[in-house]
Specification:
2 strands; two-stranded antiparallel sheet
Length: about 140
């Protein structure tokens, strides 16, 4: 068997394994969807928590989430640790020390936090408004 044939065989097996893992993940998510939703409903009992959780995208840090949600930085840190232990967030793969939510509130059918104006709160909305020269 040539090197090319060996590599092709290995790549086919890797592709097959990845396909199998995606299928397993799909069913695990389906089986645990209701439990995740219930846990998020219980844990995210304030708009500050909802805002901090939903904007935990691995890029935003504690300082950004605190400024946006209105919660102190120390509180955001405590929430992240609690959510990490509960499996609601994971460590960011790209930014050390930052957390990434495992699912958005929208994905589990929960309403995101509402701002004073009645609109959805998100850092992206705030940033894009600022770049357009609007006051937030």
């Amino acid at each position: 068997m040539s090197e090319t044939e060996i590599l092709d065989t290995i790549l086919k097996r890797v592709d097959s394994t990845q396909e199998t893992l995606r299928e397993i993940l799909k069913w695990i998510r389906f089986a645990n969807f209701q439990k995740l939703r219930e846990t998020l409903e219980t844990e995210l009992d304030t708009n500050e928590k909802k805002t901090a959780y939903d904007n935990s995208d691995g890029a935003n840090g504690i300082k950004e989430l605190a400024a946006f949600s209105g919660a102190p930085q120390d509180t955001i840190y405590v929430w992240w640790q609690k959510w990490f232990r509960a499996g609601l967030v994971t460590e960011s793969e790209t930014r050390k020390g930052r957390m990434t939510k495992i699912a958005s509130l929208d994905e589990v059918g929960l309403k995101p936090a509402r701002g004073k104006s009645g609109t959805s709160s998100s850092i992206t909305t705030k940033i894009s408004s600022k770049t357009k020269g609007e006051k937030t």
